Amino acid sequence: MTSRQNYDCLYSPLLRWCAKRALIPVPIHDVIPLSGMFAGRIESLLCDGKSVIGYYEVHMGDDNWSAKIITAMNYTTLKAIRIYDYGHYGLDSYELNHEFIDIKISSVYIRCSLFYQYLSKPHYRKYLHKNALLALTNIRSVPFVNNFDIRKRICGLLDVESMASLYACSHLSGLFV
């Protein structure tokens, strides 16, 4: 009953039709080696056609204990999840905890300045949250200063009224946090 002729006449056109109707996009990703104070850490950016997610892993510990922290940050919703994996050497005990985090505007500015060359690409930029887009725009503007000493000096020159209006707007304060 299932001859080669039936398969070729019925299933091949059906599979071709389904493949055209329900295309699955290939996820776009970048693996980013970090430098500076984040040296040795690798972060990955993934765009699946609906959201942009960055994730990284941090290892800490000494002779008695170890910890692995995995963080996944969704740049589309500005939410994150952190998974903590604690272990004690010599003891067969492991702890696994997690927490959900709303990403603060200052973290958005830090992440956007670290990954500007990647997040400014059209396929990532298309799915970013509006605060991340504003951060990308503000990072390229004149007031954004990435050096803490210079930012501290600028804030020291402002009067109280200017400081109040600076910190009243989350994006202006994000430039100086």
In whole angstroms, how far apart are the ends? 72 Å
Q: What about the largest sheet? A: 6 strands, antiparallel
Radius of gyration: 23 Å
Query: Order of strands in the sheet with the most strands?
Result: 1-2-3-4-5-6
Helical coverage, percent range: 40-55%
Percent range for β-strand residues: 25-35%
The number of E-state strands comes to 6
Q: Look at the structure and give the mean pLDDT.
A: 79
| Helix and strand sequence | HEEEEEEHHHHHHH
The poorly predicted ranges are: none
Task: Draw up the topology in text.
Layout: H1 4-21, E1 28-33, E2 42-47, E3 52-61, E4 65-74, E5 79-88, E6 94-102, H2 105-114, H3 116-119, H4 122-125, H5 130-139, H6 148-157, H7 160-168, H8 170-176
Antiparallel strand pairs: 1-2, 2-3, 3-4, 4-5, 5-6
Would you write up a description of this structure?
- With 177 residues, the protein is an alpha+beta fold.
- It contains eight helices and six strands.
- A six-stranded antiparallel sheet has the order 1-2-3-4-5-6, with no helix packed on it.
- A hairpin with a 4-residue loop joins strand 4 (65-74) and strand 5 (79-88).
- Helix 2 (105-114) crosses helix 5.
- The radius of gyration is 23 Å and the shape is extended.
- 11% of the residues are buried.
Question: Tags for this entry?
Answer:
single chain, 177 residues, alpha+beta, six-stranded antiparallel beta sheet, 8 helices, 6 strands, extended
